[in-house]
Amino acid sequence: MDTRERYLAIMTFQEPDRTFLWEFGYWGGTVRRWYKEGLPLIKGLPEDVAEGLGLFAECAGVPLRRYTPYDVHDYFRMDPYLVRVPLNIGACPPFEQKIIEDHGKWHIWQDPDGCLRKEPKDKSTLPSIVGWPVTTREDWERYKAERLRPTLEDRLPANWPQLLEEYKRRDYPLGLGQLHGFFGTPRYLMGVEGLLIKYYDDPEMMKDVNNYLADFWIALFDGVLRQVEVDAVFIWEDMCYKGGPLISPDMFREFILPGYKKLTSFLREYGVKIINVDSDGNIWKLIPLWVEGGVTVLYPFEVAAGMDIVEVRKAFPKLGIIGGLDKRAVAQGKEAIDRELEAKVPFMLQHGGYIPTLDHLVSRDISFENFKYYRQKLEQIVRRFSKAWDRD
Amino acid sequence: MSDYLDTIARAVQSGDEKLVTQTVAEALDAGLAPEEILNKGLIPGIQALGQLFKDGEAYLPEILISTRAMRSGVGKLSPLLAGKAVAKRGTVVVGTIEGDMHDIGKNLVKLMLESNGFEVHDLGVDVPADSFVRAARELNADIVAISALLTTTMVSIPDVVKALEQAGLRNRVKVMIGGAPITRQFADEVGVEGYADDCASAVDEADRLIKSAPIG
Questions:
Q1: Taking a C-beta distance cutoff of 8 angstroms, is the pair A263, A305 a contact?
Q2: A243 touches chain B (CB under 8 A)
Q3: Mean pLDDT computed over every residue of chain A
Q4: Does B80 touch chain A (CB under 8 A)?
Q5: Is the predicted pLDDT of residue B86 greater than 70, yes or no?
Q6: Is residue B210 less than 8 Å (CB to CB) from chain A?
Q7: Quick one: average pLDDT of A165-179?
């Protein structure tokens, strides 16, 4: 099987020859640590990759960020990357990137989506967002009219015709969607607290936001799908924390589910069978709603937030699952790694629809030695449950 | 009289800011003491909402609208309470640990503590250990509450504990922590007394710490 055939077979519960040897991603600081601990430095990371920058790997797809940790990919002989169509679905034209306030060690700058980010200048940690482009209905009306026009103009790269030709000959899975979602996008429009309270203060506006976003994405995706067949669509939400969802299931049903149903119904008409949603935290209460909304794959199933992929598989036998392996076990060492992998991976592979990866980006407390052991052990288990082995 | 208090409590619980403001004004006009409105109307309302949150029947939007309604009611009472000895439940210094810029969890904890009668001083995000110490000393704090979102920043929490020890404050200032990667086990490992899973539990934990015996 080539990579594309394997992806489609795994994610639609057909008969793959084996599952993928993939990861979700790494923090910049993790890769830098590993260079010091023996990871061969061949392609390296640019200087401006911060310790706290997420570097996405094979299952998240490329290009998702400007930098990809190719040295890790090559060293561990990971399977080829999923590729994402480089469609800009953010603010277009983008907001001017500029420094708003300078406070010595840190500054506040405006990002391309119009958010104000407070960030240490050495980028030693993740920025926090302290300002958003939408507060009022008037802001929203202006934002969608000026920045979210439903046209592909200026949203695809100049080499799009060449990419189209390449896609038609591809042997890898092609995904559509970047970091956008029915909760994920509005949080960048109005901030988490602003968004949460807006559901009460102006429910009609929130319904308009989600309905508009559904129509907007449908229009953009339609423009792409007319030109090329894609294998999967990706939606990003991150709408849960370790205590559960940020909003109630009832609120999800009222405000968010209609958008999912509209979007996935459209995608099914184009034959797109695989709809992925990325949400950290404890997602148990929302899984049935996502499934009802047409979502077929969820990831990354954070163990520290209470997610157990074995239990999820038992409850949702036909839900595609990616991730779910406790990164904290890899930080602890060999015995913990053995326990974690043996408890989950064989069961999951027997039941299908599963791609094993850690439960989020690989954190900086994981040594290169431990990560190597985890990958070797994981590969052994995957091999045990494979119909064919093409990696010797 | 208790009709006013019941209405205020229910309005806080349901996050009805307008009804809270209106009923607090009516209760004052009817001659209720501001202390009674606070302690028997507003605070029971936010406590009921906190219980619903802990039971999984309320979520963060409800916390936000209820604490907003609570603030509105307290705002009406504040001028009348000024100079009166209103029992506060304790003084808490809150902040996000050094190197961490995240503030949503910390803000929610602050809102819930304030709404439940604690005096809260917010040091913001990316707070160095010595700033926690300085604030704890100057404000005579009972509790230092530290938030961390990242596994890479939670490791700085012991620095705050050590700095409080070095400043000679550790025997009278208790420390509680919370955030995505934080667990009770981690709290035990780093030698802090308090841990909360969420903003509603933080109120119970702060209350428990205030009532517990001094350290050492």
A1: no
A2: yes
A3: 95
A4: no
A5: no
A6: no
A7: 95
The whole-number average pLDDT for the span A18-30 is 95
What residue spans in chain A does CATH classification 3.20.20.210 cover? 3-92+133-384
Contacts for B56 with CB less than 8 Å, ≥ 6 apart: A244
User: Is-contact A53 A27, C-beta < 8 A?
Assistant: yes
Record the pTM. Answer: 0.91
pLDDT score for B1? 57
A46: closest CA among A24, A31, A59, A61?
A31
Contacts of B151 in chain A (CB under 8 A): 363-365
The residue-averaged pLDDT of A126-142 equals: 93
Q: All domains of chain B, ordered by start, with CATH?
A: 2-81 (1.10.1240.10), 91-211 (3.40.50.280)
Residue B82: is its pLDDT beyond 80? no
The Cα–Cα gap between A272 and A173 comes to 12
Strand pairing report for A274-279 and A297-300? parallel
Q: Which residues of A touch B126 (CB under 8 A)?
A: 106, 120, 125
B197 neighbourhood in chain A, CB within 8 Å:
242-243
Q: For the domain bounded by A3-92+133-384, which CATH number is listed?
A: 3.20.20.210
Q: pLDDT of A349-388, one tens digit each?
A: 999 999 999 999 998 899 999 999 999 999 999 999 999 8
Instruction: Give the per-residue pLDDT at B104.
Output: 83
Residue A211 has pLDDT above 90, yes or no: yes
Best probe of the A interface among B18, B67, B104, B182, by most A CBs < 10 A, is B104
Where does residue A242 rank: exposed (0-12), middle (13-18), buried (19+ CB within 10 A)? buried
Shortest distance, CA A229 to any CA of chain B (angstroms):
39
A-chain residues near B107 (CB < 8 A) = 193
* A197–B68 C-beta distance less than 8 A: yes
**Nearest CA distance, A248 vs chain B (angstrom):** 6
Q: Please give the ipTM for the structure prediction.
A: 0.91
Which residue in chain B has the smallest CA separation from A303? B181
Among left, alpha and beta (phi > 0; psi -120 to 50; other), residue A276 is beta
- Closest CA of chain A from B165, distance in Å: 27
